[in-house]
Amino acid sequence: MFLKMKRLFSFLLLVAILSSCSEYQKVLKNEDVKAKYDLAEKFYDAGDFKRANRLLEQIAPKYIGKPQGERVMYFLADSYFQTKDYNMAGYQFERFLKSYPKSDKAVEAGFYGAKSYYMLSPKYSLDQTDTDKALIKLQNFINTYPESEFLVEANIMARELTTKKERKSYEIAKQFNTIGEFDYTFLTPAVTAFDNFISDNPGSVYREDALYYKFDASTNLALNSFDYLKKDRLNDAKAAYITFKKYFPESKYLKDANKTLEKVEKELEIYSK
Question: Which pTM value belongs to this model?
Answer without folding.
Answer: 0.84
